[in-house]
Amino acid sequence: MSPAFPHPQRLPRFAALLAALLLLPFAAAPALHAQASQQSMPLDSGFGPLDPSAPSIPVAQIIKEFTAKETLFNQALNDYTWTRTVRYRVMDDDGNPTGQEYYQVVNIYYNPQGRRMERVVDSPPSTIKDVMMTESDFSDIEDRLFFVLTDEAASQYDITYLGKQRIDQIETWVFDVKPKVMEKKHRYFQGRIWVDQKQHQVVVTDGKNVPDDLRPGHEDLTLPFITWRQLVDNQYWFPVYTHGAAMLHFSAGKGYLSQNVNIDEMVQYTNYHRFRTSIRIIYNGQDITNNSHPATTAPAQPGSQPQSGSQPQPQPH
To answer: Could you tell me the residue ranges of all domains in the chain?
Structure first.
């Protein structure tokens, strides 16, 4: 954001914790310039103490396995549709809404060519006046608030093992993640991730997108955020809830004064629905996946009912 001057029933308590978070009032925040008051979101009370002891298997093996799972997760998103609800609000110094708000609901789907598309369901006029949402804000919403550390992306990051930590009923490994080098005009994630020890999948992400533009008159700063994932179709940990908040400090410049803006942001991802399968059926060396003959149709996956992030339902892990 910029200143407004010109220009299986295995996780019942974890699911309950998510449900409690999702019932919080919608709040959101525009990404601004200058400097944020914090670099990461405060962790929920459901996080236990960090145990720095070494894991029972090599750290390199853990990283290899969860980045492989992240690659599958990223591919699986292309087989799902979902709904994304965003609300950004400007808050006063006491954390109360000022009435300035950006709100949008979109359905994510794929066209016949496999290109991801968005259909706006609800988008009243924005009432935000104190700041301006920038292109990087919208790009973060669309692509980066649920950071996916695929095999390919992992080579761009330093991934450091920190220890073990319990998130409610889930035993996790904890890693710090930061970009090795930040190339010009590229955006990266910097923060911390929690990986489920049983399934080797990321369940929580906490950090921010970097770098920020701190040039006077061009400041553009994104919020620190935390993203929670939930098991969908007994298979993938998909994001269901993102929350970001910070007091953003804009420095003074020629013709304008310094400015502090308190921003709160919330994004919900709901109604995940598998609309196709990425399984390919090869017969005599030919891909017959799209053949209409009943014998070549991939069977329905068990437990593939759409799952709403606003009403999390725990499933077997």
So the answer is: 2-276
Question: What's the pLDDT tens digit per position in 79-91?
Answer: 899 999 999 999 9
Residues with Cβ within 8 Å of 113's Cβ and at least 6 positions away in sequence, in order, are: none
The pair of three-digit structure tokens given for residue 198, joined into one six-digit string: 């049983």
CA distance 226 to 44: 10
**Model confidence, pTM:** 0.74
State the Cα–Cα distance between residues 69 and 158, nearest whole angstrom.
18
Query: At 282, which amino acid appears?
Result: I
- What are phi and psi for residue 174, nearest 5 degrees? -115, 135
Residue 258's contacts (CB-CB under 8 Å, 6 or more residues apart) are 249, 250, 251, 252
Phi, psi dihedral angles at 16 (to 5 degrees): -65, -40
Residues lower than pLDDT 50 in the chain: 5-38, 279, 281, 288-317
Alpha-helical runs (H) found in the chain: 12-22, 59-76, 135-139, 151-154
